[in-house]
Amino acid sequence: MTAFLVLVAASGLLFFSLVEMAFTLLMRLPERLEAERESEGDALSSYLDDPLRFFVPARLMRGMLLILCVALVAQTVDHGWVGAGVLLGSGFLLAVGVGQLLPAVLVRRRPERILELLLPAFTAVASLTSPVT
């Protein structure tokens, strides 16, 4: 059961990392100008006008999911040096591998397409976290 929960939380971490990486790549000036021309009056243009409305919920959710993943892994490992090594290794793998490298590889070609697919779901989650942010 714990392995399944770690998988679900890591999938959520990958989702938010993909959305954040795509938006970050789209923030470059040429891509941003093209995106603003194509998206009049939708969620993307409101996020481009005020990037903090995007980045605060994205990073909040990424941080919470990373902490959840590491806490779930911590429940299954033994206490001691080996357990600490497994915990540090899994935290590093999740933070760097799932949180940075994998999204960078998946998004680098067409960030606008990834953002087009994932932004509606992100907007729903961001609206839920708006009282906190």
Outline:
The relative contact order is 0.19. The chain has 133 residues and is mainly α. It is built from six helices and no strands.
Total strand segments: 0
Report the span from N to C terminus.
31 Å
Radius of gyration: 17 Å
On the 0 to 100 scale, the average pLDDT is 85
Enumerate the spans where pLDDT stays under 50 for 5 or more consecutive residues.
Answer: none
Instruction: Specify the biggest β-sheet.
Output: none
Summarize the amount of helix as a percent range.
over 70%
The string of secondary-structure elements, in order, is HHHHHH
Which geometry do the CA atoms define?
A: elongated
Beta-strand portion reads: under 5%
Q: Helix tally? A: 6
- Helix-strand category: mainly alpha
Task: Give descriptors for this structure.
133 residues; mainly alpha
Topology readout:
Layout: H1 2-26, H2 29-38, H3 43-49, H4 52-76, H5 81-107, H6 111-128
